[in-house]
Structures are given as structure tokens and as C-alpha cells.
Specification:
Blueprint lengths: L2 H8 L9 H8 L2 H32 L4 H20 L3 H19 L6 H22 L9 H15 L2 H5 L2 H4 L2
Helix pairs in contact: 3-4, 3-6, 4-5, 5-6, 5-7, 6-7
Length: 174
């Protein structure tokens, strides 16, 4: 018996037929798929932003609530990944910077303060407006430079040696 005959004898008699949903997606145009994925992203983004805002409020009331900080950070992680999947690279990058700052904040186990709350507020405002812009058929791009700079500045401040930040300059060299 040849190798081909052996394979033929063990091959399934009928190939599995694609599901109705798979067939629909296979027949859909790229534009239809992109619009469908964008719609899913926008729906998810609303939910994620609501969750971030809810946990931001908890952190304002209880600055040591690391569980709520972690949930907010996870929200930015979700926005980063899901926006990247639909091709919103600038949106994803802005979310990445906020996530990085929050990761470091959580690593240091710092209580929330005005600088972190400000970052969360500005991020929610920007991403909320960006989602509304996308829903209304506006452009894909929005200027996130101020938010990115704020996140980078916060991250830089977190990575500065604490003694140098809290000690008068005259005592640092002593």
C-alpha cells in the first residue's frame, strides 16, 4: 500500500462544513469586518471607561485601595490591546503610557494622590472623547500628546530617587 493510499484510507469521508457565522464572515468584505470589529471595540470601550471611572472614585475615597487601582490599570491594558486589534495605534499607544505609569505606581505600592487622580481624569476625558469621535464617524486620530507627556512625567517622577525628591538641594551633597 502506498503512502497516499494509507492517508486516503484514514482521511474523513466528509470535510467539516463551516458554521453559518463562519460562512458569513468569510463572505464579508474587509470594510464590513472592520466596521463590525470597531463596533465591538466601541461597545467594550464604553464599559471599560465606566469601570475605570468607578474605580477612580473608589481610589479618591480610599487612596490605599490597591485593588481598585489594579482594576483601573487593567482597564487601560484592555483599551491598549483592543484598540490595537482594530488598528487604532495612536489610541493604543496613549493607553500604553497610562498603563506603564500605573504599573510602576502599583509596583511601588503608593497611595493614590492628586498626580495619579489627575492622570486618571485626563485619560478618561481623552479616551471618552475619542470613543465619541469614532462613534460619530470622525477621524481615527486624536491628539494624545498631553496625556502621554503627563504619564511619562509621572513615571519619571516615580523613578527618581525618593531621597533626592524630598531632601533640600543643600543637603543632597552632604
Amino acid at each position: 500500500e502506498t503512502l497516499a493510499e494509507t492517508f486516503a484510507s484514514v482521511a474523513p469521508a466528509l470535510a467539516a462544513q463551516p458554521s453559518e457565522e463562519t460562512a458569513r464572515l468569510m463572505a464579508a468584505s474587509n470594510e464590513e469586518l472592520d466596521a463590525e470589529l470597531l463596533g465591538i471595540f466601541l461597545e467594550e470601550a464604553h464599559e471599560v471607561l465606566e469601570t475605570i471611572a468607578e474605580h477612580r472614585n473608589k481610589v479618591v475615597a480610599e487612596p490605599h485601595d490597591f485593588e481598585s487601582l489594579t482594576t483601573a490599570r487593567r482597564g487601560f491594558h484592555t483599551l491598549k490591546g483592543s484598540s490595537r486589534m482594530v488598528g487604532l495605534t495612536d489610541f493604543s499607544e496613549a493607553a500604553r503610557f497610562v498603563e506603564m505609569a500605573m504599573n510602576r505606581w502599583l509596583q511601588l505600592e503608593k497611595d493614590a494622590d492628586a498626580s495619579l487622580i489627575s492622570l486618571l481624569d485626563n485619560a478618561c476625558l481623552l479616551f471618552g472623547a475619542w470613543v465619541e469621535q469614532l462613534e460619530s464617524g470622525g477621524g481615527l486620530w486624536r491628539d494624545a500628546a498631553a496625556l502621554t507627556a503627563q504619564a511619562q512625567n509621572l513615571l519619571g517622577a516615580l523613578d527618581s530617587p525618593a531621597d533626592e525628591m524630598n531632601t533640600p538641594a543643600a543637603l543632597v551633597g552632604a
